[in-house]
Amino acid sequence: MEINDTIHLLKECDAGAKMAVSSIDEVLDKVSSRDMRNILNKSREHHETLGNEIHSRLRELGSEDKDPNPVAKGMSWMKTNVKITMNDSDATVADLIIDGCNMGVKSLHKYLNQYPAADDDSKGICRRLTDIEEELCRDLRSYL
Known about the structure:
It is a single chain. The chain is an all-alpha fold. It has one domain (2-143): Ferritin (Up-down Bundle), CATH 1.20.1260. It contains 5 helices and no strands. The longest helix is centred in the N-terminal third of the chain and has 27 residues, at 2-28.
């Protein structure tokens, strides 16, 4: 059971990290503030680095990585493009990213509870991903 919970938790973290990188990539060219762009780039790097660590762990466990749910990714793309078309300000971008972070944190906590037998290293990775999301939210609040 522990190995299955570990793999499932890591796969969900992998999908979340990929979704975050994709979401940041989608809005980065819309940001006018250099400081905000730096915040987003730094967070993107953190997500990518942790994603690489997750991939390594999954390979060690003999498992494949997981892409984000295509429906969720499509809905995110649509929401982002509609909102930015209506108002392409930094505040709109901050609002969209903060919403995504909040959804990510909620999902990650759900998965921590759903896979309680996951090993401590994987739970730690999940908590680190949650911390990255929460830090990004805090950093973007001043742009709302």
